[in-house]
Amino acid sequence: MKIDIIEIQNKLSLRKRNVTIASGAKKSAVLIPIVKRENGFTLLFTKRTEDVEHHKGQISFPGGATDSDDRNIIETALREADEEIGLKKEFVKIIGLLDEVRTPSDFHITPVVGFIENLPALKRNENEVLEIFEIDLNNFFDEKIIRTELREVFGKTRTVYFYDVWREPIWGATAYFVKQLVDIINSQN
Length: 189
What we know:
Blueprint: H1 5-14, E1 26-37, E2 40-48, E3 59-60, E4 63-65, H2 73-85, E5 93-97, E6 101-102, E7 107-116, E8 129-136, E9 146-153, E10 156-163, E11 170-171, H3 172-186
């Protein structure tokens, strides 16, 4: 599939976002890094260590809870990406926001989509990140790698997405954000 960053940015700016009001949930943000590579684009992920307080060992995007010093949710996402993987904000062009989600672990997450034209050398925070890896964005358009399960979340039955695209599944909020991005790229408006 031909992917155009300007077109993705336009689609993100024109859509109405679902903004969740999650009273009492921990306000947080993740950065969804779309990385330009010679052969196209990748999504950059992290595998969390078993030492972190939440989401031990899970695949995620760089991110975390909002600090009192953060001026806005974009600043949270950029600060967390710097803290977790050493990605400095000057390398990231913010192109939009996806729908927010409240997780079963009681985080209210705003996904911030960023474009990285030239990815610098990264340095993972060894306490939080076990591994940094990239997956070709085009892989996520293959319907054979996505599956769903119904789960009870906050007293409601929800669809949980799983992408079998790496040595272990990408699932939960991270997979939901990928699904949103893929759907936006595929949309006709």
